[in-house]
C-alpha cells in the first residue's frame, strides 16, 4: 500500500481469532511500535503508541472472536498503517481508508479484505478509479443453497446486513446515488439468502 501525506480509517471492522490477534500484537512490536494490552472476559484493550499519539483499540469479545471497530482514526505513522492494512486484508475485514495526497483525496473501500471501490476526489470532481465487478455463477448459487452450515452462516449474514445498512446510511448522507443503488441491491440479495436459510 502506498501511503499519502495523510491517511485516515473510517468504519473499520475486523474480527480476529486469538492466533491472528497475537500475530497483530507481535507485528506491531517487531515494527518498533510500543504497545500495552489488558484483557478481560468481555474485552481486549490494546494501547498503541503511534507518532500521532496514543491510540486505544478496544476489541469486544464475541463468541470466541475479537471485534475491532474503529472510526475516524488518523494514521500518519506508516508502520502502524501498513500493519493495520495487512491485518484488514488477512482477517477479511471491512474499512474505508481516506488517503490525502497533495492535490486530491483517495477513498478506498475494503470489504472482506479486498478493495471493492477506489474513488479519487479532486475539488468538486469525483472519479471512480476502480470498482470490483461481481461475477457469481449459477453453480455457485446452487452450491451456496445446498450448504448445510446455515447455523454458522446466519450470524455472519446478520453482520453483513448490519454493515450494508451502515454503508447505505453513509451513502444517503453523502448523497452518493451510485452507492445507494448498489447497497440496496446487496441488501436484497442478503435478505433473500437470510429467508432461504431461516426457512
The profile of the biggest β sheet is: 10 strands, antiparallel
Distance between the termini: 43 Å
* CA-based shape: globular
Structural class of the helices, strands and pairings?
alpha+beta
List unreliable stretches of 5+ residues. Answer: none
Order of helices and strands: EHEEEEEHEEEEHHH
Please, how many helices?
A: 5
Please, what is the average pLDDT? 84
How does the SSE layout of this entry go?
Layout: E1 6-16, H1 18-30, E2 34-39, E3 43-50, E4 53-62, E5 65-70, E6 73-74, H2 78-90, E7 94-100, E8 105-111, E9 114-122, E10 125-131, H3 138-146, H4 150-174, H5 177-198
Antiparallel strand pairs: 1-5, 1-6, 1-7, 2-3, 3-4, 4-5, 7-8, 8-9, 9-10
Helix pairs in contact: 1-2, 4-5
Structural summary, described in words:
This protein has helices at residues 18-30, 78-90, 138-146, 150-174, 177-198; strands spanning 6-16, 34-39, 43-50, 53-62, 65-70, 73-74, 94-100, 105-111, 114-122, 125-131. It is of the alpha+beta class. Strands 1, 2, 3, 4, 5, 6, 7, 8, 9 and 10 form a ten-stranded antiparallel beta sheet that branches. A hairpin with a 4-residue loop joins strand 7 and strand 8 (105-111). Helix 4 runs antiparallel to helix 5. The termini are far apart. The mean pLDDT is 84.
Amino acid at each position: 500500500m502506498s501511503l499519502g501525506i495523510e491517511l485516515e480509517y473510517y468504519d473499520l471492522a475486523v474480527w480476529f481469532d486469538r492466533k491472528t490477534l497475537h500475530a497483530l500484537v507481535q507485528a506491531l512490536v517487531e515494527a518498533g511500535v510500543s504497545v500495552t494490552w489488558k484483557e478481560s472476559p468481555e474485552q481486549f484493550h490494546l494501547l498503541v503508541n503511534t507518532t500521532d499519539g496514543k491510540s486505544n483499540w478496544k476489541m469486544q469479545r464475541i463468541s470466541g472472536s475479537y471485534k475491532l471497530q474503529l472510526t475516524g482514526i488518523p494514521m500518519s505513522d506508516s508502520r502502524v498503517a501498513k500493519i493495520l492494512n495487512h491485518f484488514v486484508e488477512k482477517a477479511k475485514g471491512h474499512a474505508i481508508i481516506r488517503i490525502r495526497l497533495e492535490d486530491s483525496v483517495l477513498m478506498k473501500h475494503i470489504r472482506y479484505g479486498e478493495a471493492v471501490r477506489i474513488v479519487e476526489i479532486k475539488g468538486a470532481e469525483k472519479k471512480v478509479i476502480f470498482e470490483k465487478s461481481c461475477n457469481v455463477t449459477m453453480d455457485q448459487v446452487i452450491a451456496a443453497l445446498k450448504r448445510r452450515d446455515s447455523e454458522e452462516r446466519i450470524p455472519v449474514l446478520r453482520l453483513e446486513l448490519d454493515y450494508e445498512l451502515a454503508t447505505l446510511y453513509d451513502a444517503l448522507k453523502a448523497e452518493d446515488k451510485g452507492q445507494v443503488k448498489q447497497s440496496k441491491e446487496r441488501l436484497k440479495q442478503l435478505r433473500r439468502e437470510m429467508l432461504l436459510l431461516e426457512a
